[in-house]
Specification:
mainly alpha; 46% helix; globular
Length: 128
């Protein structure tokens, strides 16, 4: 079965994380954390598109005070709500102090394939 979903760079990470939310470890995220993580990934992609190749500089820009303000304003969050969501992402292992850490690579792609397999038929299958 193929199910096509229209997307663009603005909505992509929000859509992918909503899909992955059904699987561990993404199923541990509350709505605000998922929304914030998606926006952080989207903003990081924009920074990469500006040819910022140094990963340390990319993360410094992403976690700068100005960028944080831009993000929580865009998401309609208060500063306190934003900080709570960041803290939740850190506690759940998606962020460290100033770096996004993901259990899987999530580059911007034009096609995402999800396969369901019997756990006995393949090694390293994530069970949920």
């Amino acid at each position: 079965m193929v199910y096509k979903v229209g997307t663009d760079k603005q909505r992509y990470y929000h859509q992918v994380l909503k899909l992955l939310r059904n699987f561990s470890p993404f199923n541990k995220l509350v709505d605000r954390e998922l929304e914030l993580l998606a926006e952080l990934l989207s903003q990081r992609e924009k920074i990469i598109e500006q040819n910022v190749t140094d990963p340390i500089l990319r993360e410094a820009i992403l976690f700068s005070y100005e960028k944080k303000q831009e993000i929580y304003t865009k998401l309609g969050m208060s500063d306190a709500s934003f900080r709570n969501a960041l803290s939740g992402l850190r506690k759940k292992g998606f962020l460290n102090k100033h770096t996004i850490i993901l259990p899987v690579s999530l580059p911007y792609l034009t096609e995402v394939i999800v396969s369901f397999v019997e756990p006995q038929t393949i090694e390293n299958v994530q069970r949920i």
